[in-house]
Amino acid sequence: MTIKLICACILAFLISTAFGKYYIPWLRRQKAGQQIKSEVDWHQSKSGTPTMGGVMFILAVLLVCLTVGFPSMLRGRYVHIFVLLFAMVFGAIGFLDDWEKIKNKQNLGLTASRKFLLQLTAALVFVLLMRMFGHVRPNLYVPFTGHTIPLPEWLYFTFAAFVIVGTVNAVNITDGVDGLATGTSIPVCLFFAAVSFAWGEEYLEQGIFASAMLGGLAGFLVYNFNPAKVFMGDTGSLFLGGAIAAMAFAYDMPLILLSVGVLFIIETLSDIIQVCYFKLTHGKRVFRMAPFHHHLEMGGWTGKKWKEKELFFLFGGISLFFCIISFLWVFQRYGI
């Protein structure tokens, strides 16, 4: 099992980095550049940077699941394929969004209502599929207490759809600074891979997917670290959000997203608080700009203007800390 997890990670890293060497120049030739929002004026120099770079780690994860995960498929174990297909559906939604932006030469893609409807449909289909194959149960495991709360089926599906759509969009919001979503998500994938190692062979397939995500993202980071040569785009960020949400359900502990995804939650809440407060006070703001990483870039409440590399290490370090704490709370659930 250990060898397979290591192989999945290394192979995904090599595929992602090798593919990027040829894919990024191709994106430039296609003029698939990202348009930057006018209000984020200090990022205007990034305008035209190739987007849809998420295809790099999506391809890496796909190939790893079909190769390293092939023996599991022969034994009739497909949970990693279910998670992959679900994430790819969200990646396809993101691709449509990116395509609209490139075609219209602006930072506006699919309408919010269209994206929400597509995401909600995908979330419900995924949870129903996982339930049919016995990979999830209508119970909520509470990681920090060890208790399990039974729920009616309808309530569980409603909860699952809300969590999945919320997670996907939270990751998407975090993707606003070079390497930020990548660096924040790598510890999360490492957490899930470590859980598979601790819980044993029964969770091998989930571990293969998590390890592939870890390696694929690390390979993508080679090109996405500041100054970024490519952005993941909504193609990558929606796939990434879908993958993280799907892994939480594949391990049957969706509530773990509250801790491993704490920065995604902070980013989302900052956006919600800003909009609500702005409307209630007729123009006043809590943050200099939302989401929270832009607030820090503009000087926050202290006056210190955080640079992109500083934000990368800050968010990555906090994410790693919470992932370690989360692992210490859950590794003995099924582990020896």
Key features?
336 residues, mainly alpha, two-stranded antiparallel ribbon, 13 helices, 67% helix
Describe this structure in words.
This protein is mainly α and 336 residues long. It has one domain. Helix content is 67%, strand content 2%. The protein contains 13 helices and two strands, in the order αααααββαααααααα. The chain has a two-stranded antiparallel ribbon. A hairpin with a 4-residue loop joins strand 1 (139-142) and strand 2 (147-150). Helix 2 runs antiparallel to helix 4 (79-104), helix 4 runs antiparallel to helix 9 (233-250) and helix 6 (153-174) runs antiparallel to helix 9 (233-250). The two termini are 15 Å apart. The relative contact order is 0.16.
Describe the protein's topology.
Blueprint: H1 2-29, H2 55-67, H3 70-74, H4 79-104, H5 112-132, E1 139-142, E2 147-150, H6 153-174, H7 180-199, H8 204-224, H9 233-250, H10 257-260, H11 262-280, H12 292-297, H13 308-330
Antiparallel strand pairs: 1-2
Helix pairs in contact: 1-2, 1-8, 2-4, 2-8, 4-5, 4-8, 4-9, 5-6, 6-9, 6-11, 7-8, 7-9, 7-13
